[in-house]
């Protein structure tokens, strides 16, 4: 685990076990840092929800709760940007194949909302070609400063 500040930038690099609740090792400190950098509560909520979804998806769907696999997380927080990269050791998936959870026939489906929430709450979301790594980024807008 690495936790450092340089040039107004907080960074964290950590390998999480593939077990439920492991996301808190990242989210608690990430939320503290967002607060320390003066991010607004609505933005902190958005980042928290998106990052938690991405990490839980990596643990449960990517690594299938396999104790021999890790989820690597890298965070960067500054006064105007937060970036979180999450990589699991699973085979990946095609994000374009996730069904639209707002479609009438999917409204009561128990899964499929995480990707939509991440896209809604973050400025950008990018997957690698294999589909086992995602980079979430939120840029603070001028009205938020």
Features:
about 30% strand; alpha+beta; 3 helices; Heat Shock Protein 90; about 140 residues
Question: What does this protein structure show overall?
Answer:
- By secondary structure, this protein is α+β, with helices and mostly antiparallel strands.
- It has a single domain, classed as 2-Layer Sandwich (Heat Shock Protein 90).
- It is built from 3 helices and 6 strands.
- Strands 1-2-3-4-6-5 form a 6-stranded antiparallel β-sheet, with helices on one face.
Q: Summarize the main sheet.
A: 6 strands, antiparallel
Number of helices: 3
Low-confidence stretches: none
The CATH architecture can be given as: 2-Layer Sandwich
What is the H level of CATH, i.e. the homologous superfamily?
Histidine kinase-like ATPase, C-terminal domain
Over all CA atoms, what is the radius of gyration? 15 Å
Q: What is the CATH domain class?
A: Alpha Beta
The best one-word shape is: globular
H/E series, N to C?
Answer: EEHHEEHEE
């Amino acid at each position: 685990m690495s936790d450092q500040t340089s040039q107004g930038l907080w960074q964290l690099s950590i390998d999480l076990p593939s077990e439920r609740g492991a996301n808190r090792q990242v989210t608690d400190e990430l939320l503290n840092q967002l607060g320390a950098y003066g991010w607004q509560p609505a933005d902190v909520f958005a980042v928290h929800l998106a990052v938690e979804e991405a990490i839980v998806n990596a643990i449960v769907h990517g690594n299938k709760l396999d104790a021999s696999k890790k989820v690597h997380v890298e965070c960067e927080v500054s006064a105007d940007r937060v970036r979180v990269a999450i990589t699991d050791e699973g085979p990946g998936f095609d994000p374009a194949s996730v069904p639209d959870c707002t479609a009438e026939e999917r409204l009561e489906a128990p899964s499929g909302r995480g990707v939509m929430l991440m896209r809604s709450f973050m400025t950008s979301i990018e997957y690698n070609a294999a589909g086992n790594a995602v980079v979430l980024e939120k840029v603070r807008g001028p009205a938020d400063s």
